[in-house]
Structures are given as C-alpha cells and as structure tokens.
Design brief:
2 domains, 395 residues, single chain, Hypothetical protein af1432
Length: 395
C-alpha cells in the first residue's frame, strides 16, 4: 500500500536567503515607511514564509469568500445593465494600482499598500452607499448600532473569516474612507490591539478616525478618491446620466482636467509634489487642487449620485432590506435549517466558530445581508415575496 503523499519540505537555507533579500529591498524604503519588522498579528497561528507579512495578508484577502463577492457588487450605478461601467471589483483593482504607483514614487511599502487596497471595500453591501443607509437604519432599530462599510470590512476579515491579518492592514482598511475631507493626513500610531479594537468601536459608533497608523494606509485613503472621482464621470457619460457635452465646474476643469485619465494624472502628480514621506511624514494635496476636488465632488453628488434616474427605485430597495432582515430573524428564531441564512452562511464551514458563539441574531442577519452580492440579494427577495410554483407534481 502506498504511503500518503506529503508536501515537499522547503530548503530552509533557500528560504533564509529569500527572506534576507526581501529585507535588503525594504532597507531601500523611506525611513518613515512601514517594514516587515513592524508587522503585528493578533494570533500568529502559522509561521511566516518567503512572503513578507503584508504580501501574505494580500494573499489571505484574495482567498476569502468575501473577496470573491466583489464581482457582483455595485460601485455607483445599481440596477443598470451595462458591461462597461465600473463594478466594485474593478474599483478595488484601480485603487490598488494607483496607490502602489504613489507608494513606489514615495518609497513606501507596496506590499502593505496592496493588501489594504484589496481589502478596503469588502464591507460594501448590495446597492452601494444607499444600501448602507438602509441597513444602518434597520440595525439601529434592532439595537446593534449603526452600519458602516469600513467597519464591516474589518469585521469580515478579522472576525467572520478570521484571517489573522496584521494590525497595519486592518487599520488601513478601517481608515480608508472620508478621504476628500482631508487636505493633509499624518499617520497616527496605534500602540496595540486594545487601542485598535477601541478604534474600531469608535468608528462603529460613528466617530470616524482621522487617519491610519501608517503612511501606506494614508496613501490608500487618497487613492480611493483618485480611482473613483473621474471614473464616475466616465461611467455617468457611458450610461447617459450626463451628456457628452456636459461640463464640470470651470474651476475643477481648469485645474484637474475633464477626462478620467487627466484627473488621475493631475491628482497623482499633485500628491507626489506636496507629500513628505522622508522627514515630516504626511500625504497632502496642494490647496488649489483640494479646492478643485471639493468642487468636483459637489458636482458629482448633484449631477450623478442624487440624479432622479438613479434614486427613483430607492423606496423598493428599502422594502427589500426590511423584508430580508425580518425573514432572517424569523428563520433564526424558528431554527429553520433549510433557510438560506443557514445553508449559505452559518452552516458553510468557513465562518469562525468564535464569531458564531458571540454574535447576536440581529448581528448574524446584518452580516449575512452585508455579504450578499446585488444579484443574490434580489434573488433572495424574490424567494420571500413570490410564491413558489411546483412543476408537474409535488415531490
């Protein structure tokens, strides 16, 4: 009888040489960059390998169930069937690419930047930011506080799937939003896991953190805006929400440009010219560009995000969230093991046991809904409101 196959044992000398080479590369970074030696994990269940800690985090994020669901999550234009507009999965790739370009130029840690960028929007839910508003109101009515997608991103990666990511990555994910409110961002150290957990809770309570603990996290915060601000204009033209001849405000057009590629270039170059990652440690736009960016965001809110064509179905979406939340609570109360919340979430085997032990029923339903793609969300709603038809005969 053949003995069971075993994984090949790596050459320890070779592994040590690769780690040493990675260490030499990191010594070329800015003195204010975050290195592998700074990495802190909550559990350290498995030994490190040839990858840097942050590269390993990026791989762990990519292999989560939550990451695979980026594929059908709305960026801005929910309920629009068009293969050429941006979905969440494309946006995340754009943020990663833009942030790594900035980080490389500023001699920051690209592995850390990539991991933060890949995980930053995992907590986004069906129908984008409006869906977040709907779910937040329901959560408050059920006594579990407000809902914020940045907190949910950390929840998915740190609790629900328990990826044991480094604090630096989780912190960058937590602090990625609110980027357009900041002219200059300085990294704020986080002394330990107790302080980080409090930071998460503060965000969950609506007290948004000002900045990340690393300059790399600060870069992702800015890259998020750079990735979507011009792309949303491009998509709005693609779906006919704004006409090809529609001009953005003159101040923004003169300073930033009008095409997505020009806006991206202007914002990146301005950031590189005005940031300091060698001595004082901050990421910054010039005041001129910041003023133009605020003007462009205001235009986008009025002409795109609050456009009647985009908001006309919001009442139906609110009812969908209410129905699915109530259904989930009822299925948990009656222990309906064939219900979707059990078969597609709680009983799948990929969720942390500790999370299952400690989460309340309302929190379980919240997290089930938050993880849904737009299409899956709509199908589950149809199951709740449309009677099931039997073909031929009962079985």
């Amino acid at each position: 009888m053949k003995s069971p196959a075993r994984a090949r044992v790596p050459d320890t000398a070779k592994l040590a040489a690769i780690r040493a080479m990675n260490g030499k590369r990191e010594r070329l970074l800015s003195p204010l960059a975050t290195t592998s030696e700074d990495a802190v994990r909550r559990h350290n269940r498995t030994p490190e390998d040839i990858r840097t800690p942050y590269s390993r985090d990026a791989d762990r994020i990519i292999h989560t169930r939550a990451y695979t669901r980026y594929i059908d999550k709305t960026q801005v234009f929910y309920l629009v069937e068009n293969d050429h507009i941006t979905h969440r999965v494309i946006h995340v790739q754009l943020v990663s690419k833009i942030a790594r370009t900035i980080g490389r130029s500023l001699r920051l840690n690209e592995d850390l930047i990539e991991a933060i960028a890949l995980g930053h929007d995992i907590g986004h839910i069906p129908y984008g930011h409006f869906g977040e508003t709907c779910l937040s109101a329901i959560c408050e009515r059920n006594g579990i506080g407000k809902f914020f997608h940045n907190v949910q991103s950390v929840r998915f990666l740190d609790q629900i799937e328990d990826c044991d990511l480094t604090m630096q990555v989780l912190d960058g994910i937590l602090c990625h939003n609110g980027e357009a409110d900041d002219l200059r961002v300085t990294a704020e150290p986080c002394p330990g896991w107790a302080a980080f957990d409090k930071k998460v809770q503060d965000n969950a309570d609506g007290r948004r953190s000002r900045s990340a603990m690393t300059l790399e996290g600060c870069v992702v915060k800015f890259a998020d805006t750079i990735a979507y601000i011009g792309r949303d204009l491009q998509d709005a033209r693609e779906v006919g929400l704004i006409g090809e001849g529609t001009q953005i405000p003159e101040g923004a057009r003169v300073i930033l440009g009008e095409a997505n590629r020009d806006i991206i270039n202007t914002l990146i170059y301005d950031l590189l010219e005005n940031s300091d990652t060698e001595d004082n440690g901050f990421i910054s736009y010039s005041r001129e560009v910041e003023k133009a960016l605020i003007s462009l965001r205001r235009f986008s809110r009025d002409a795109i995000y609050d456009h009647p064509s985009l908001t006309s179905e919001r009442g139906k979406i609110e009812r969908m969230y209410a129905t699915l939340f109530e259904t989930g609570l009822r299925d948990l109360e009656t222990e309906e093991r064939h219900a979707r919340i059990f078969t597609d979430f709680l009983d799948t085997g990929w969720i942390s046991r500790q999370y299952l032990k400690t989460a309340t029923p309302a929190e379980l339903v919240r997290d089930f809904l938050a993880g849904m793609t737009d299409r899956y969300f709509a199908k589950r709603y149809e199951e709740c409101v449309i009677p099931r038809r039997v073909e031929g005969r009962f079985r």
